[in-house]
Amino acid sequence: MARAHPTPAEIEDALHATLAALEEIAHGGRVTVGEMIARLGGRAYGPLMVLLGLLVVLPTGMIPGVPALVGLGALALGLQMLTAHPSPWLPRRLREIELGEQRVARMVARWLPRLMQIRRVLRPRMTLIAEGAIGRQIAGLAAGLAGLIMVPLGFIPFLPFVLGLALVIIGLALAARDGLAMLAGCAVFVPAGWILLGRLLMLIG
Cβ neighbours of residue 181 under 8 Å, at least 6 residues apart? Predict the structure, then answer.
């Protein structure tokens, strides 16, 4: 039986669960990564990619160590998607990480309505590359690549932001089975590669 496409309400629910956890962080709450995964339930891969990406896109990404932790999480998610693990699992140390940062409150308030409006843009299209095994393989490769780059090289200016943006877009595309958005997310790796190449050339020169 063909898998039913998500309704706009289902897409919004997945986004809302992700953003609600982030909003709690922004307003000084203490929440663990494991609690976030529990909130997202069985459809956690896409929303969790969104959440990890936002943690480096928002000012929290400037906190020392956050890009590396996000990279580890992205790498773990990527490997699980590539091996068809039914639901996300993270090592205990990552699940127990507590996040709380009041100073991102205004930034989150700015992003919440914008991301919730994405439901008007996302829709099932080019679904062959955004659903089922193929969709998870593409998202898994992207998450794994972002993690492999971010863990050792997250200190390079703007690189974590660009990689985080790719995770956000691909995570949303996976939740909505939107192949066009999936391609857009993969395209974000082009400027990430450009930044990395420029940095390497500077070190060589």
Answer: 121, 122, 130, 169, 170, 172, 173
Inter-residue contact 50 to 168 (CB < 8 Å): yes
33-69 pLDDT per residue, tens: 777 677 665 567 887 888 788 888 877 677 788 888 8
Count other C-beta atoms under 10 Å from residue 114's C-beta: 8
What is the Cα–Cα distance from 31 to 165, expressed in whole angstroms? Answer: 22
Structure tokens at 49: 């990619």
Residue 124 and residue 5 in contact, taking contact as beta carbons nearer than 8 Å: yes
Calpha distance 135→6 (Å, rounded)? 14
φ, ψ for residue 155, nearest 5 deg: -80, -10
Phi and psi angles of residue 44, each rounded to the nearest 5 degrees, phi first: -80, -20
Amino acid at 15: L
Examine the pLDDT at 18 and tell me if it is beyond 70: no
Please report which confidence band the pLDDT of residue 2 belongs to, taking 50, 70 and 90 as the band edges: very low
CA dist 162 and 66 (Å) reads 15
Residue the block writes with tokens 């082009």: 190
Rounded to whole angstroms, the maximal C-alpha distance in the chain is 58
Q: How far apart are CA 170 and CA 132, in angstroms?
A: 14
Q: Within 10 A of 80 (CB to CB), how many other CB atoms are there?
A: 20
Structural domain boundaries in the chain: 8-204
